[in-house]
Structure formats: structure tokens, C-alpha cells
Amino acid sequence: MRVPIELTTGSDVERFSKLVQTVDADVRVFGKDENGDPWEMSAKSLFCSLIMAAKIQHRPHTAHDVDWNTIWCECKEDIYSLIREFVKENELE
């Protein structure tokens, strides 16, 4: 399952992170940076949560800025019902 997601507040990041921690499967988050180069990481990683939280709090990044309109979540398990509050419905594949 691959779905576009949107995390707009620090609370969103916190809730999303807690939800994916409960999934007994690999959950990946991926997108593109400011130059259009793709990136990917585990949605369960602390680093991922920190990067997303920094974006929400408008803190500068040390790496390329993420294009926050390109964030997708992917998992082999069907986790749609778990994360549906963060899914961009009009952009589903």
C-alpha cells in the first residue's frame, strides 16, 4: 500500500509516528528534496520524526530541504485505516 500523506502540525507528526510504531511491518516514508532528488527512510525511525517535526517548527535543515508536497507512506500491510487522517485523498494512486 502506497499513499500520499500530509503532516502539517507537530501534533500530526507525533500522532503519525506513534501510529506507525504499532505496525508489525516495515513502514517507509519517501519523497523528493528541493532539487527533485528522491529520498526514502523508515517511518519508524527517530530521525524521520525529528526531520518532520523540524519542518513543522520551521527550523533550518542541515541537508537539502524536503519538498513537503511529495511525501508518501508505503507499507506491505494495509495500514490505510490506521493513518487515514494523514492521507491526501485526492492524490491516491
Q: Can you put this structure into words, describing what you see?
A:
- With 93 residues, this protein is an alpha+beta fold.
- It has a single domain, classed as Histidine-containing Protein, Chain: A (2-Layer Sandwich).
- It contains 3 helices and 4 strands.
- A 4-stranded antiparallel beta sheet has the order 1-4-2-3, with no helix packed on it.
- The longest helix is centred in the N-terminal third of the chain and has 12 residues, at 10-21.
- The mean pLDDT is 80.
Q: Shape from CA axes?
A: globular
- CATH level 1 name: Alpha Beta
The third-level CATH topology is Histidine-containing Protein, Chain: A
In whole angstroms, the N-to-C terminal distance is: 9 Å
Uncertain segments are none
Q: Mean of the pLDDT scores?
A: 80
Strand order of the largest sheet: 1-4-2-3
Order of helices and strands: EHEEHEH
* Fraction in helix: 25-40%
| Sheet with most strands | 4 strands, antiparallel
Number of domains: 1
Indicate the proportion of strand residues: 25-35%
CATH architecture: 2-Layer Sandwich
Strands, total number: 4
Mind telling me the C-alpha Rg? 12 Å
Q: Helical element count?
A: 3
Pairing-aware structural class of the strands and helices? alpha+beta
